[in-house]
Design goal:
This is DUF4192 family protein. It comes from Mycetocola lacteus. The protein has about 240 residues and is of the alpha/beta class. About 25% of the residues lie in helices and about 20% in strands. The strands form three sheets. Strands 2, 3, 7, 8, 9, 10 and 11 form a seven-stranded mixed beta sheet that branches. Strands 1-6 form a two-stranded parallel sheet. A hairpin with a 2-residue loop joins strand 9 and strand 10.
């Protein structure tokens, strides 16, 4: 078994693509740990919606292959278990996250549409307009909460996992961001962490990667939340 030691977030993020088998993009990874070693890895497409409407693609892409070469990461940030969604799990996920009238795509491959994250809620005089339809931002927030809950539901199926580390891969630039409160997908990651803690998992960290930079969602106020990502190491793993 190959053992990769990663004692810092930067080192862990350089090892992660080797555990996954490719370069992640526009997705969120849920990395599972058991007693300090990785024991599972789930990959989901980032939530998206069409243009500026409240309609989004509700299908998850969970990729992996059990036949990959055994690899492991140990340290602060075992072998990584990659598994496909069963038909029943995929159906439960898509049903759990659908809002009223939201179409669900059957596609579960890579996300080729522009990455769109909701901005601040628009001013409104009520929760519904004169036609009785709900506020789009409230519907979107509810959909993100449902999606986060469904993702943790799948995470709970990983044997022996006792802690979680989510990693977002985004196309949105973060190099000029200083505060964690300004990082993309912060609210969605917050929902994921909330449901993970409700399920009894310890949160090890929460990270975001964009190009040559990585960000720390849990950075303390007043500290720099974004760092430059080190170059991938070619050093041989231990073991």
């Amino acid at each position: 078994m190959k053992i990769f030691h990663a004692h810092t977030p930067d080192a862990f993020l350089r090892v992660l693509p080797r555990l996954l088998g490719d370069a992640p993009r526009r997705c969120i990874l849920l990395v599972a740990f058991a007693e300090g070693h990785t024991c599972g890895l789930l990959r989901f497409d980032l939530p998206r919606r069409s243009g500026q409407t409240d309609v989004y693609d509700g299908a998850f892409g969970l990729l992996g292959a059990a036949a990959r070469s055994p690899s492991a990461a140990s340290g602060d940030p075992g072998e990584a278990e990659h598994r496909h969604l069963t038909e029943a799990e995929h159906r439960n996920l898509t049903e759990a996250e659908r809002g009223p009238g939201d179409p669900v795509s059957a596609k579960t491959g890579s996300n080729d549409t522009p990455e769109v994250e909701p901005g601040p809620p628009a001013e409104s005089t009520g929760s519904a307009d004169s036609s009785g339809s709900a506020d789009p931002e409230q519907e979107w927030a509810r959909a993100l909460d449902n999606r986060a809950r469904a993702m943790i539901g799948v995470f709970c199926r990983i044997p022996h996992a006792d802690s979680i580390l989510p990693v977002v891969y985004t196309d949105r630039s973060i190099g000029r961001i200083r505060a964690a409160s300004s990082l993309p997908w912060r609210d969605f990651v917050g929902e994921v962490l909330t449901h993970a803690e409700i399920a009894g998992y310890t949160v090890r960290d929460a990270l975001v990667v964009s190009g040559a930079h990585w960000g720390h969602y849990l950075a303390a106020p007043g500290t720099r939340a974004v760092q430059r990502l080190g170059l991938p190491t070619e050093a041989s793993p231990d073991g």
